[in-house]
Amino acid sequence: MYNHSRLAELRMPILCRQGNCKASFVKIYNLLRHIESYHRLDNEVQCSAVDVQQQSLQACADDQDLHDVSDSQYGTVDAISVQQSSDTSTVDISHNCIDDVHTEAVSLVAALRASSSIPYSAIPAVINSFNHMSSSLSDFFELIAESSLLEAGVDSESALSVMQTIHQRLECSHMPLDFLSSVYKQDAYFKSHDLFVKPEPVCFGARYESHSGTSKLVYDTFQYVSVEQTLKSLLQNKAYIEALLEDHVVPGVYRGYADGECAKLHKLFGNPSKFSIMIQLFYDGLGTTNPLRGQNTINNIGVFFYTIKNLPARYNSCFANVHLLALCYSEDLKKYGFDPVLEKFVHEINLLQNIGFEANVGPDGERMTVYASLCQVTGDNLALNGLLGYIESFSSDFFCTFCYTTQEMIQKHFRDDVFQRRTITEYEKDVKKISEIAGKATKNHCRGVKRDCALNRIDGYHVTENWSLDVMHIVLEGIIPVELSCILYGLCVECKLFDVRLLNDDINLFWGTMTVGKDEKPATLNKLLEPGQGLTPSMKAVQYWSLLKYLPVIFGKRVPQNNEHWNFLLHLCRLVDLLFAPRVTVGMIQYMKDVIEDHLNMYCELYSTKWQVKLRPKHHLLVHLPAVIQKSGPLVGMSCMRYELKNSFFKRSAHTACNFINICHTLANRHQQHVLYSLLSSLHIRDTVVVGRQTSVPVCMLAYCELLCAEFGVEATDDVVVTSKVTVAGVQYVKNNIILLDVHELGHVFGRISTFVCARNDEWYLVVEVISDDKFCSHYHAHAIAEVKPPAYKLVKFDELIDHHPLHCCTVNIGGSVVKLVRLPYHIFKL
To answer: Taking a C-beta distance cutoff of 8 angstroms, is the pair 414, 600 a contact?
Structure first.
């Protein structure tokens, strides 16, 4: 077999086929060990029961890549299977208690395995420690029972009979968690769960490796997680189905992908008679090792995620609702390209789109056919161009995935309709020319197209109609640092209004009083670089966003009115507020086109003429953003921020596991263990209110007693539960936070959180003190608020909030008077 393997004459994976055995292996060593352990004809392995044998074979097949499992461990699993299939006629109340212990143990182990910071090798020590404690307690109880019987005067023969019964019933408590005492047993247990979706290895290709003068054939593989199996496991949760069926379509308002033109014109998504699931695909590269160490790129991986766009936005930002599609080595992607991974995905999506699968997803739980298809692909600019088959150099012409623009054109034209759009017809011409010029010229692309993308074989999808751009990389990590460097250079160096030291001191002083977003504090700035060179040091996207949001509030008092650099900063704030709006109207899209054109013209007049700062390719992508919203909904729905947060799980897991033999296999399995725990714990439907320290007080002791009596129907002498801090859907609300209550033609209505209260219905409410919007201070780009006298209180549910973000109220001295300012995170309007 090894000789055949070296000659590439073996078809992987290898099937066992011993009798009815269906186990498969990608290594000959694992196959031989399996045959030695399970198909010998001696008495060392007990295989008398057919169900036990099948269970063992399945467990072995699930762990085909584990090299550290001994034969004795296989035998232990067999013994456990026999024990689990034993006669249940002797089950009594003690066994029911043991079942409760087993349930708690499974929950504990699932939680430990779901954590990316805990190595699997540490979990058996916890289980074995519990087993020893349980065994010691059982022995102690037997000794106490025996001595108590003898002290009570029971004769020795009767006491012996009773002790034998007690010992027999306590026997199951000596090692109650033995079925989870090793990593192998835990793997076998959890992988047999109905909700567990196992990653499958898929072959890229074969190559030869030489070790100690011997050459052998090695198969390059990637880990793939079935979309259909993932959807089936998700649709077993009733709350998840209800979330999918939520009607969140408002005429004239774009709230998600379903409101865009692409979804309405799609032959599947636009068909109301079919239950269809819209999939958004994401790709990015990920480093799993320390980048400062040698050969750090060897274990770099490519990650493919996806989300379900049918879910409301409050769920899709959840960590558990970002699903894994594939993991592969970056070096393999460079060698074999994206096609092997995408072809596997395309084949499955075409089946789901045309055939689908059956699930109980009807309004009353009836069985229906579920269809699914790809709606859009997102990623940062480099990854998106590479995945879709476009050039990955943004310093050359034809870098845009929407139009045939050049570097010269992006410096002059700032309207979308000026540029020639890419179409399917033109794309096919470009692909045809690529094959004609192959090997005849040094250029490897035709008008930016390098190759035909495999995703084009999905019915209803084409890369030229992939209306998706990542606003996080384009704006937060691209345009904001470049333009802020120009603005701060102009204010500090040209106008000499303040210096970097004062800039950092005021930022530190401001963030010292922050009650919201303290972890988003910008880094301390170094010496300002030349305009257009960006800020140093580099920061995270949320840090750039926070710096832009609060810069007008912090330094507005130091800048005179009508300063050209300050006006450009305020215009940038207005533009970013529009781009990050979670809800957009048709009028906002038209207004956004004018704002973008004005902003780019202002940038050129201020900095291109004076300091020869050119517009960057990301400035050109701004021009297409209004059209992207019209086609695919708000830009926050295709932001990479939620996907980038998911990468932290794999980085921590890689550092914890420290096993890079097959890091893709390790990380894929650890991720699916986390997915199983999320499904068991319903983490993907996060409507639960997490409450801090709470107290029970009489209603008459509260300043808003009359409000609670009227709303809850309680007496003043009744008690209610109050607290000062709660967390809902990952957002923490604390007493004295500011929230937005209403938006109308005359302004905004804010509220200061007084407390959180819970009455008889176990539902938590916010008690807020109403604050009026005095005026909008354009120089500070913030709302000035005024207290309402006497205090007016209001009871608000969490799902009634116009926006879920708590806000910070800061105090500023304007013209000798103290003014309280509130900065909204983005443009908000009431439906």
So the answer is: yes
pLDDT digits (tens, 9 = 90+) for 573-621: 999 999 999 999 999 999 999 999 999 999 999 998 888 899 999 999 9
Question: Is the torsion defined by CA of 304, 309, 310, 314 positive or negative?
Answer: positive
614 residue type, one letter: K
Work out the pLDDT band at 41, boundaries 50, 70, 90: low
The pLDDT tens digits for 308-319 are: 999 988 888 888
| Angle at alpha carbon of residue 601, lines to 595 and 602, rounded to 5° | 85
**Block residue for tokens 């443009």:** 827
Residues contacting 598, CB < 8 A, separation 6+: 571
Q: Torsion angle of alpha carbons 632, 638, 639, 641, nearest 10°? A: 160
575: how many CB neighbours lie within 10 A of its CB? 21
> Would you say 481 and 535 are in contact if contact means Cβ atoms under 8 Å apart?
yes
Q: What pLDDT is stored for residue 120 in this prediction?
A: 87
The domain at 689-822 falls in which architecture?
A: Roll (2.30)
Contacts of 344 (CB under 8 A, 6+ apart): 202, 224, 326
pLDDT at position 110 is 85
Asked whether the predicted pLDDT for residue 365 surpasses 90, the reply is no
Domain boundaries, the chain: 2-84, 93-191, 200-389+453-469+640-681, 394-447, 471-631, 689-822
Of the listed ranges 167-171, 635-639, 713-717, the one predicted with least confidence: 167-171
Q: Please report, as a single letter, which amino acid is at residue 761.
A: N
Q: Which residue has the tokens 């690529």?
A: 434
Q: In what order do the strands lie in the sheet with 367-378?
A: 200-211, 214-224, 323-329, 301-308, 275-286, 367-378, 357-360
Residues 139 and 827: their CA atoms lie apart, in Å, by: 67
Type of residue at 412 = K
3-state secondary structure 614-674: CCCHHHHHHHHHHHHHHHHCCHHHHCCHHHHHHHHHHHHHHHHHCCCCCHHHHHHHHHHHH
Whole-angstrom Cα distance, residue 234 to residue 227? 11
